[in-house]
Specification:
Elements: E1 24-27, E2 34-35, E3 38-40, E4 43-47, E5 58-60, E6 63-64, E7 74-75, E8 78-83, E9 85-86, E10 89-91, E11 94-98, E12 101-105, E13 113-115, E14 118-122, E15 127-129, E16 136-137, E17 140-141, H1 142-145, E18 151-152, E19 155-157, E20 160-162, E21 174-176, E22 179-180, E23 183-185, E24 188-190, E25 197-199, E26 214-216, E27 219-223, E28 230-235, E29 238-245, E30 248-252, E31 261-266, E32 271-276, E33 279-283, E34 288-291, E35 296-299, E36 302-305, E37 312-315, E38 322-325, E39 328-331, H2 337-353
Parallel strand pairs: 1-8, 2-9, 3-10, 4-11, 8-12, 10-13, 11-14, 12-15, 13-19, 14-20, 15-21, 18-22, 19-23, 20-24, 21-25, 23-26, 24-27, 25-28, 26-29, 27-30, 28-31, 29-32, 30-33, 31-34, 32-35, 33-36, 34-37, 35-38, 36-39
Antiparallel strand pairs: 5-6, 6-7, 16-17
Length: about 350
C-alpha cells in the first residue's frame, strides 16, 4: 500500500513571500563614494527577484540576455548592492534565502571586505565583485576609456558559501569580473550546481584593468552538481600578476553537456597566472584544463588523476607555453593511491593551520 505524506496543517506553517528585490543599496558617485559603513553580525534574508516577462535566458554566472535585446547582457541583481563604495565591510553576517544573488560590490568599489560570513540558500551567485565589459562611457567600453573605475582591492575572507544557484543553475559561489587586486582567501565553497570561483570576463588576451587577483587557500568541494564545462576555479583573460595558490579542490562531477568538469578550468586568454601549491583530487576529468591559454606557470601542485585522465588537459593550447615545475602527479592505477592521497590531505590541512 502506498504511503502518503503526513497532512500539513497550514495553521502550523510559516510561509514567507518576499517583495523587495533588494535589501541594502550603497549608491555613491565617481567623485562622492560611500565610505566607512560597516555591518557586523546581521542576517539578511528574504529578498525577491521577478523573472522577466520574456523569461530568463541564462548565459553564465547569472548574466542573461534581455529580451528584446537592448545592448549588453543583464545581470540577476543582488540582495545587497554597492557601487562606488570604499572601505566598507560585512563581518560575521548571514545572507540567506534570496531570490537573486547575495552581495555585489560593483563599479568603483575599493578596499571593501566581506569576512567570516555565511551565504546560503541563494537563487543566484553568492558573492560578486566588479563588473563585466558592457557598460559604456560616451559610446566606448568603460574598461578602455576609464580603467581607473575598476573594482579594486576588495577582499573575501574566511566565508562559507554553499547552496547557491538553487534556482539559476549557471550561478557560481564567488564571481569576479574585470577586477584588480581582489583577494579571495580562506573560504569554504561547496554544494553548487556549477563553478566554485570565477575570475575574469574577457575571452581573449586583450588588455583590461583585470590584474593581480589572488585566489588563496580556499576549500572548494562538491561543485558542478548539475552543469558541466566549469570547475572548482574558473579563470579567463589576461590577468598579469594573478595567482591561484594553496587551494584544496575535490569532488567535482561531470553532468549535462559535452564539455569536461575540472579542478581548475583556465579558459580563453588566461595569461601570466601562477598556479601553485594546490591539492586537487576526486575530479571527474583532468585536475587542470587549459583552453586557448598562453604562458602560465604550474608549480608544486598535487594532482590526483582518475580513470586514466591526464593531470593537465590542453585544448587549443600549446603545451610548451605552460611551464611545469615540481608537480606531484598520482594516478589511481598505483597500489598506494589512497595512502598518497591521505598524506597529501594531511599536509594541506597542517599548512592551513599555520
Amino acid at each position: 500500500m502506498a504511503k502518503f505524506p503526513e497532512y500539513i496543517n497550514p495553521n502550523q506553517t510559516e510561509t514567507t513571500i518576499p517583495v523587495a528585490e533588494g535589501l541594502v543599496v550603497f549608491q555613491g558617485g565617481k567623485n562622492h563614494p560611500v565610505k566607512n559603513i560597516h555591518f557586523e553580525g546581521i542576517t539578511f534574508c528574504h529578498s525577491a527577484w521577478n523573472i522577466p516577462l520574456a523569461g530568463y535566458c541564462g548565459i553564465q554566472a547569472c548574466h542573461f540576455d534581455p529580451r528584446p535585446q537592448s545592448g549588453g547582457w543583464s545581470v540577476v541583481p543582488a540582495a545587497i548592492t554597492a557601487n562606488w563604495a570604499e572601505n566598507c565591510s560585512f563581518v560575521n553576517c548571514i545572507v540567506k534565502n534570496t531570490g537573486g544573488s547575495g552581495i555585489w560590490l560593483g563599479t568603483g568599489c575599493k578596499n571593501n571586505t566581506v569576512s567570516n560570513s555565511v551565504f546560503t540558500g541563494i537563487s543566484g551567485n553568492g558573492i560578486m565583485i566588479g563588473e563585466g565589459r558592457d557598460r559604456e562611457i560616451d559610446g566606448e567600453k568603460w574598461y578602455k576609456t576609464a580603467p581607473e573605475q575598476v573594482a579594486l582591492g576588495n577582499s573575501i575572507l574566511n566565508c562559507e558559501v554553499k547552496d547557491c544557484g538553487t534556482q539559476f543553475y549557471g550561478a557560481v559561489g564567488i564571481w569576479c569580473g574585470l577586477t584588480a587586486e581582489t583577494t579571495i582567501k580562506g573560504n569554504e565553497i561547496c554544494d553548487l550546481p556549477y563553478t566554485g570561483i570565477s575570475v575574469g570576463w574577457m575571452w581573449s588576451p586583450e588588455p583590461t584593468p583585470c590584474r593581480a587577483n589572488s585566489i588563496d587557500g580556499n576549500h572548494i568541494h562538491h561543485i558542478m552538481n548539475i552543469l558541466s564545462d566549469g570547475g572548482g576555479i574558473y579563470m579567463l583573460g589576461l590577468q598579469p600578476g594573478s595567482k591561484i595558490i594553496n587551494n584544496h579542490i575535490h569532488d567535482v562531477k561531470i553532468n549535462a553537456g559535452r564539455a569536461e568538469s575540472n579542478g581548475m578550468f583556465l579558459d580563453e586568454g588566461t595569461t601570466d597566472v601562477v598556479v601553485a601549491n594546490n591539492l586537487i583530487y576526486n575530479i571527474a576529468k583532468s585536475p587542470l584544463r587549459f583552453h586557448r591559454a598562453t604562458a602560465n606557470l604550474v608549480k608544486n601542485n598535487y594532482l590526483f588523476c582518475q580513470n586514466e585522465n591526464p593531470p593537465i588537459r590542453y585544448n587549443s593550447t600549446s603545451e610548451e607555453l605552460i611551464q611545469k615545475v615540481d608537480n606531484m602527479v598520482i594516478s589511481d592505477t598505483i597500489t598506494n593511491y589512497l595512502s598518497e592521497l591521505n598524506n597529501a590531505i594531511s599536509i594541506w590541512k597542517n599548512s592551513e593551520k599555520k
